[in-house]
# Entry
Amino acid sequence: MSEIPDDLFYTVEHEYVARTGDPAVVRIGITDYAQGELGDVVFVNLPKPGDRLDVHQAFGTIEAVKAVSELYSPVAGEVTEVNGTLESDPAAVNRDPYGAGWMISLRMDDASALGSLLTPGAYRTHIGE
# Structure
């Protein structure tokens, strides 16, 4: 069984959205299920702070030993921070996807967009757990 925290929002593409101390800023990464399916992550290509993203826009790629996958933005907004640790330690995504393995922080254009994402229960159903 995958770890699926109850305080996050999810996408069908296996990204998660975590609230931060600022109600307009969220932290985005891939789920425990996604990292498990990918296998050992060896490289992550992320955008730069200041880049603007639309909903469902590819914002980077994640490369594992057995696959390369695109990363999609769950909400529209401006990238405020990128997890630079992943440059030297991409495997943090495998070890701690919801903590040290986060990817970007985004200042949302519209916080109500979170309502269109999957709840933890809906995500569990989506992945069959």
About this structure: Helices lie at 32-38, 85-88, 92-95, 120-126.
